[in-house]
UniProtKB/TrEMBL annotation:
Subunit-structure text: Monomer.
Family: Belongs to the shikimate kinase family.
Pfam families (UniProt xref): SKI
Name recorded for this polypeptide: Shikimate kinase
GO cellular component: cytosol
Cofactor: Mg(2+)
Amino acid sequence: MNAPASRVVALTRPLDRPVVLVGLMGAGKTAVGRRLAARLGLTFADADHEIEAAAGRSVAAIFAELGEPAFRDGERRVIARLLDSGRGVIATGGGAFVDPQTRAAVKERAISIWLRADVDLLVKRTSRSSRRPLLKRGDPFAILTDLAAQRNPIYAEADLIVDSVDISPERMVDRVLAALNERVSQ
């Protein structure tokens, strides 16, 4: 979905549920989510940061020490807790929405938005961080291409799709707000 270039300042109607941002790592979920929440005067939560706080260790350490299944279990519980907290903006980890239980909870209790980005942009953005455990397993382009092939059909189940492109996070918030305005005015 491509939103108008003009600045979208607010929603035309208030939200009655949380907004959950989904998509691959590097799509801009945290950067856009934090700014979206600020613009709407809502709380913001990054699910990965909440998982780290609950576990007392980094996502990378959880993956290394306990494995991906243990991480996904903790992620499922943390996202359920965040959804229960009410209105706000939640940025999920890249694999969260792929989990059937998490996806069902999000679909039932939130408005989900897929920040859809092409692999070249994801590689560009994720190359700046060493905190991506899945990308430490080999060639980031190949890994992200495989993840996109597996996950994009699932992300497409989100309530809204907003293309994440190489623009400022503030302009991406405008795109998200335009999509939300279309949704809440229906």
